[in-house]
Specification:
By secondary structure, this protein is α/β, with parallel strands linked by helices. It has 16 helices and 13 strands. The chain starts with a strand and ends with a helix.
Length: about 450
């Protein structure tokens, strides 16, 4: 009943999902196109009931936030070929204390980093590796799956491939990712190549390697990744009582994430599950801001930049592959692109931590954009906002510790919380606590 295929985003070319293809004959990106008319075979209430029942199911596919929506992802994939690590169903943190501080109606933070490898990349990788698993079972001669990465993509790829027993290859920019991110693919048995270049350089090389179709490309230019990542929108809507917020803010690097977010909302509309169109905000680090620059020029064209070092290392990207899709998402959803300095992202992350979060620097970029847009009253006091937190702060504890120890170069940490070193004497401790708590 349900059917999907690859389709060019700028033309009419289509390809079966079994074909190893990433762009059309003219070089345009592809998307996964579904037969939305078939979705109408169920009413909106029937879809809600189905998804609600799966939320309480213990069937392996239903325990995944992605595969519990499988008809909308890869509808023809056999359930037995799914490679899942119970991704999705991540917490929606009610940040009402922070909402009161900045005077907005409501604020939630979608903790996508509370997943197996600690980032939202798990959502897309389960779909891609599941499809590769299916292709290999059907005789397609794929030797390995490869990606360029600034950390999170490599972690997700290595974990899912290890689960499936498929070799993986990761291309990392040497010296530009955290220790935690580097050790993940090593631990999962990937072939790890640290190259003396940046992410964009790694991306160029991995595409050349993947020209040999026995090496399958796992970066977000492969639209299978987007199919998993779009389920963030489904989860948000379901968790908010089948409603959507007024504004969704998401950090942007290679821009597959915002493309997926918009595609998920498109699907919800096609299913009749929402008629709301939230405003989408993409937040970029000022040191790696080609999308912001293009937005300020009314999207005349993408002008790649040499990305400078940023604490938000996963979005230190100067030539984003998914630019065309992201540009369309911003246009379709009355969007905004904002940039955030290193000082702003550092303070924003740690300001939010004071309310019970533990933010990675990329979430700091998104929160920094929220604070700036609120100060300008571009986001108004009567609006509801969701911030997408893309990774787990524990993967960036070096960043967190250096902030509180006031050791981040060029950063004056407004929210630093110093450790009080005292002698082992109860009287001294009591006196100090009286001073602090008065």
């Amino acid at each position: 009943m349900f059917y999907a295929q690859f389709k060019s985003i700028s033309g009419k070319e289509t390809y079966p999902l079994s074909q190893i293809v990433y762009k059309d004959s003219a070089g345009s990106l592809l998307g996964v196109s579904h037969d939305c008319s078939a979705w109408k075979s169920r009413s909106p209430e029937e879809w809600k009931n189905l998804f609600g029942n799966r939320r309480s199911s213990f069937a392996p596919a239903d325990l995944s936030g992605v595969w519990s929506k499988r008809e909308l992802v890869l509808p023809e994939l056999p359930v037995e070929d799914i490679v899942t690590l119970q991704e999705g169903w991540t917490p929606l943190f009610n940040a009402q204390k922070l909402a009161k501080e900045i005077n907005i109606k409501s604020l939630h933070v979608k903790l996508c980093g509370n997943s197996h490898t600690g980032s939202f990349k798990d959502l897309g990788m389960t779909v891609l590796v599941s499809q590769v698993n299916h292709l290999i079972k059907n005789g397609i001669p794929i030797k390995a799956v490869a990606c360029a990465s600034t950390g999170d993509t490599s972690a997700a790829l290595s974990a899912y491939c290890a689960k499936a027993g498929i070799p993986s290859i990761v291309f990392l920019p040497a010296g530009k990712i955290s220790v935690a991110q580097l050790v993940q693919p090593i631990s999962n048995g990937s072939i790890v190549l640290a190259l003396d270049t940046d992410f964009d350089g790694c991306m160029k090389i991995v595409q050349e390697v993947a020209a040999d179709k026995s090496i399958y490309l796992a970066n977000s230019m492969n639209s299978l990744r987007i199919e998993g990542q779009k389920t963030i929108s489904y989860e948000l809507c379901q968790e908010l009582g089948w409603d959507l917020p007024d504004v969704i803010i998401i950090p942007g690097g290679n821009l597959g994430n915002v493309s997926a977010l918009a595609k998920g909302i498109d699907d919800l509309s096609a299913l009749g599950l929402t008629d709301k169109k939230p405003r989408i905000v993409v937040a970029q680090a000022q040191n790696a801001n080609p999308f912001y620059q293009a937005y300020k020029r009314d999207f005349d064209k993408l002008r790649p930049v040499q990305a400078q070092k940023t604490l938000a290392s996963a979005i230190q990207i100067g030539n984003p592959v998914s630019y065309p899709k992201a540009q369309q998402a911003i246009k379709d959803y009355n969007g905004i692109v904002e940039q955030v300095s290193e000082q702003e992202l550092s303070d924003a992350a740690h300001r939010a931590d004071k309310t019970g979060l533990y933010c990675c620097p990329h979430t700091g970029v998104a929160l920094g954009a929220l604070f700036k847009l609120r100060e300008k009253d571009i986001i108004s006091s009567d609006e509801s906002v969701v911030v997408i937190s893309t990774a787990n702060g524990l993967k960036f504890s070096e960043f967190k510790a250096a902030y509180h120890e006031q050791k981040l170069d060029g950063i004056s940490p407004k929210y630093a919380n110093a450790i009080h070193h005292l002698p082992a004497d109860a009287g001294t401790v009591i006196s100090k606590l009286k001073l602090i708590l008065q």
